[in-house]
Hints:
Elements: E1 2-3, H1 7-14, H2 17-23, E2 40-43, E3 49-55, E4 60-67, H3 75-89, E5 94-100, H4 104-113, E6 116-127, E7 130-140
Parallel strand pairs: 4-5
Antiparallel strand pairs: 1-2, 2-3, 3-4, 5-7, 6-7
Amino acid sequence: MFNCKDKQKIENIFSNPNVYQWITDDNSKDFAVILHPNIIYLMNDTEDGVIRIDPMNSVTCQVHIAVLPSGRQHSKQFVYDAFNWAYKNTLYQKFVGIIPSFNTRTIRFVENIGFTYEGTLTQSFMKDWELHDQLIYSVNKGDNLCLL
């Protein structure tokens, strides 16, 4: 696990068609990785997964989890390790993920590892020129993430 500052390595994951289709809406055609001191990109050692951490305030952040198909077999461990890294190296106490309602695989994944559903942003994501809800999930420091 490392804090990646290599824009090309990060873009290789986010721009992969198996990832890109799930993280962008209809108007995100010019998606680009932003390197900024307040944004953390945690990458696994096999370089097939990255988690972008964006501050919401001093103790809460939004996370964007992206894993290539080659890394899916260890994605639970990757998320667990990344959150432990963040708890040790930042002041963040709460991670928030906002997931389009049609992304059922990601919803099942975060529920299975211990995220809690917190609410819905109605008709807030456009995909295939149709508005979709986004579901808000979170995990707090001290919550047990499930690895099995």
